[in-house]
Design brief:
about 200 residues, minor pseudopilin epsh fold, 8 helices, binds manganese (II) ion, 3 strands, 3-stranded antiparallel sheet, mainly alpha, disordered N terminus
């Protein structure tokens, strides 16, 4: 089993790498502090990457892409692969210039499914607040472009249900506890201020 460090005697290049942040570590303050980014991205996500690189060696997932591993694995491989996929989507959906409202066909689909953008935000936040323990709340789309809000425990991702993930809010305490302590609802409400709608629309 893994001890959380990259140890690979046979390969020089590790298959999975830590996703690069598209902003400075302090750029999302005060919604997400530099300290939270440094722990969340630099320690938690790095550990998932190191773990998966060790775990897939010698398995049928050794040369598989991340999404395939998440769809087809279980146990420790699923947990670490799922958390890498989740956090890659999470960290690349924010911008210090974020906030506002979506536009184009995503805005239209939100209007159709939820009546208004404000009502969508309310339902999404309620799903995150209502999730017991650690997990994720997602906005996802099906093959027809229909939108769904899904709650996933632990490392879950909508790709396991054949859906495309568009927005993921991390409700593990490591995502917000340094900045918001137990105030998960306040944190989820504030995340809208840094959502990069252009990045989200590109996924739809
Ligand atoms: Mn996290």
């Amino acid at each position: 089993m893994t001890n959380g460090q990259v140890i690979n005697k046979n390969e020089n290049v590790m298959k999975f790498e830590l996703v690069k942040l598209p902003y400075a570590v302090n750029a999302l303050e005060p919604v997400i502090s530099q300290q939270t980014i440094e722990f969340h991205h630099g320690k938690h996500l790095q550990a998932y990457v190191n773990n998966l690189n060790n775990l897939v060696q010698g398995t049928k997932f050794e040369n598989a892409d991340l999404e395939t591993i998440v769809r087809e694995s279980d146990g420790a491989i699923f947990n670490n692969a799922g958390q890498i996929l989740n956090h890659n989507l999470y960290f690349t959906q924010f911008s210090p210039q974020g906030g506002g409202k979506p536009s184009g066909k995503l805005a239209d689909a939100i209007q159709t499914s939820y009546g208004s953008f404000e009502n969508f935000q309310k339902e999404f936040e309620a799903a995150g607040v209502g999730l017991f323990g650690s997990g994720w709340v997602w906005l996802a789309s099906d093959k027809d472009g229909k939108l769904l809000i899904t709650k996933e425990a632990n490392a879950g991702n909508p790709v396991t249900k054949g859906l495309k993930p568009l927005i993921g809010f991390d409700v593990w305490e490591h995502a917000y506890y340094l900045d918001y302590q137990n105030r998960r609802a306040d944190h989820l409400k504030d995340l809208w201020k840094i959502i990069d709608w252009k990045a989200v629309e590109a996924r739809y």
